[in-house]
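4.2 Preliminary Data

To establish feasibility before requesting continued support, the project team ran the inverse folding procedure on a target of 198 residues. The structure was first converted into the token representation described in Section 3, and no sequence information of any kind was made available to the design step. The complete token record follows.
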């Protein structure tokens, strides 16, 4: 598909009508932005060896965007799976062992490919964030990435705020840092694939 491919004008209206856009500061800008081919991704952390019903909507979103002429990327969190996303979790996630995470990463990748590839008009781009995060040293990460994040702003994130309001649980530095890793993923996907949307 060429860069001249354009999104169906009704894509944003369709997503809004289905309740698939929770927040949008400027729907008109989004419509204009999607009038040219964009690259977007959805992330899947390997917390188990199988997809579940909660993955259905994100997978359908990838298909909707590709049907509208955009490039879609499924990102498997082969590195972030070691940390765990604190969003929507009332308690700290259990840390899983390396062998399990590596097996689950491979299993999720196979399942996503088997589900989506037959219904996509062009090949699915499947990537693993361990490709760039596994070799990143902690000093470089804090100097080059961490310094661009305000702890004050991070404290106001819903996932962090909810956990801080639970004095019996709180949030560990490990889970608190998850959003930095997600941000780094987005930067890498932008550099490597021109990704502009999540």
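Position-by-position output of the design step:
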């Amino acid at each position: 598909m060429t860069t001249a491919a354009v999104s169906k004008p009704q894509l944003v209206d369709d997503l809004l009508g289905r309740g698939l856009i929770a927040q949008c500061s400027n729907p008109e800008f989004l419509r204009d932005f999607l009038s040219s081919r964009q690259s977007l991704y959805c992330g899947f952390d390997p917390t188990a060896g199988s997809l579940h019903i909660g993955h259905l909507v994100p997978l359908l979103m990838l298909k909707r965007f590709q049907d509208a002429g955009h490039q879609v990327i499924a990102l498997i969190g082969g590195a972030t799976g070691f940390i765990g996303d604190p969003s929507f979790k009332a308690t700290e996630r259990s840390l899983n062992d390396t062998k399990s995470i590596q097996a689950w990463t491979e299993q999720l990748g196979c399942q996503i490919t088997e589900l989506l590839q037959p219904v996509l008009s062009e090949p699915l781009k499947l990537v693993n964030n361990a490709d760039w995060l596994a070799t990143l040293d902690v000093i470089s990460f804090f100097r080059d990435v961490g310094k661009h994040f305000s702890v004050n702003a991070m404290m106001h994130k819903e996932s962090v705020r909810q956990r801080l309001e639970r004095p019996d649980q709180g949030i560990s530095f490990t889970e608190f840092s998850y959003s930095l890793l997600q941000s780094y993923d987005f930067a890498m996907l932008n550099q490597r694939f021109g990704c502009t949307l999540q």
